[in-house]
Amino acid sequence: DDMFKLKFKIISREESPYPVQVILALKKNKEATSFTKKSIPGNGWDSVEIKSKGTIRRVMGSFYVPATPEWKVTHIDSISLERIHTK
After folding, report:
1. Nearest CA to 74 among 83, 87, 84, 65?
2. Under 8 Å between Cβ of 40 and 19
3. Global pTM?
């Protein structure tokens, strides 16, 4: 069993009612993909985790920063991905 942890820091984010959306996904084979999604409301360190059993073919992730109601500057810094073996 494995756990994948995507860590990051959101800085210089102006106040906005629309949080950053983070997705972390694992592709096991052609048909099987699992994912987790998290809303990040403000500045600072945060992380997203996903657990998996069996062989992993691919690990994917994305950040979505809403541009509404108007453009806001957002920096995502210190991005890292850890693979932690668990049993």
Report:
1. 65
2. yes
3. 0.83
